[in-house]
Design goal:
alpha/beta, 8-stranded parallel beta barrel, about 15% strand, 2 domains, 18 helices, Four Helix Bundle (Hemerythrin (Met), subunit A), TIM Barrel
Amino acid sequence: MIEESLKTAKAGFYRFSVAPMMDWTDRHCRLFHRAFTRRALLYTEMVTADALLHGPAERLLARDPGDGPVALQLGGAVPEALGRAASLAVDHDFDEINLNVGCPSDRVQSGCFGAALMLQPDRVAECVRAMIAAAGPVPVTVKCRIGVDEQEPQVVLPRFLQTLAQAGIGRVAIHARKAWLRGLSPKENRTVPPLDHGLVAEMKAAFPRLAIVVNGGIEDLAAARALLDRGLDGVMLGRAAYRTPALLGEVDRAIFGMPGSDVAPEAAVRAMLPHIERERARGTPLHAITRHMLGAFAGRPGARAWRRLLSEEAPRPGAGPEVVERALALVRPPLAA
């Protein structure tokens, strides 16, 4: 798996990625998404450095065979702790280690990290230097916003990127919205501040040696390709990829130019059945896995019946792969165009 991940890395796996999403992109979700695409870069949920150093690190860093390439996203603001956490990530064969400088949640703000770190670029530089020193050949990256609160993105973003580049960062994922640390909820911060993909494209022109991945408001692969055509190095989809994962079945062909057929949702669902059986033997409840699969057939005849059966029966004690098989039998072929 490691050798294959390294080969993929050389081919630019960050050209398309699925964003880190709290409570969503756990290992079961990532394995389902991997059933659709061999090439896309998948991110973990954000894990704080303190949780790794003082909590159940093995559980938090758990991976499944064949899930790569995967990036671990870390949260924190203490260089020494982030360096130690990065070392743990290397030991668990992650393909990238990412520092969260974009999350606006109250919990993250109270710890003075996430988007609040955009107000402390020198602290971010210290953090990433410590992570780079600990990570060796594994790339360290940053995910940020275009600014926070009353900052002027056209002014602060170039300075922030310059600071990152000088600290040794070679790739940045930019959510093309401001984060408002006061006045907006985390949910509102994903939709209310206006998008500025143009500014992110300008940053690529201003920093040609910095790989820049754009995130925010990208709803389909047509929009993703349009942004790549503007010179950006990669696109990152979040909720669109989670809610309509079937689009991931087109990624290897449409984004990476790989030959072969797209992966149908039926095939991705069936690929999860051995995982479900293994996890059932370990005591993992079925709904912990199938909750990530509810959108597999969005827009298809039978999609509602699929969701309903899984939602009602997967939480029941003893539920296993047979529930998924029964739900799958309710789905019909796509309507003719």
